Amino acid sequence: MLHLLNNAALSAEEGGHHVVNELPIPTEMFGVIAFILFILMLIATVSFSPRGKSPEIGQYEDPSELPANERAMINDLNSPRQH
């Protein structure tokens, strides 16, 4: 039985026509384009995160120098929770 399957595979390989679908660009360019798109998506993601707008290290060492809304947020986080 295996011999018949092997013969069928060989005859199909020899007798069939070979279809070649040419790609519009070289295969390496698919990887390069995907890499560039992922980097652009990363930049867009980071630009909308607060890390992109964070103050310099040491700019606000004293909590009293923080803007009022940030001071209120920190005070709210540090206050004891009431259930």
TrEMBL record:
<protein>
    <recommendedName>
        <fullName>Cbb3-type cytochrome c oxidase subunit 3</fullName>
    </recommendedName>
</protein>
<feature type="transmembrane region" description="Helical">
    <location>
        <begin position="29"/>
        <end position="48"/>
    </location>
</feature>
<keyword id="KW-0812">Transmembrane</keyword>
<keyword id="KW-1133">Transmembrane helix</keyword>
<feature type="region of interest" description="Disordered">
    <location>
        <begin position="50"/>
        <end position="83"/>
    </location>
</feature>
<keyword id="KW-0472">Membrane</keyword>
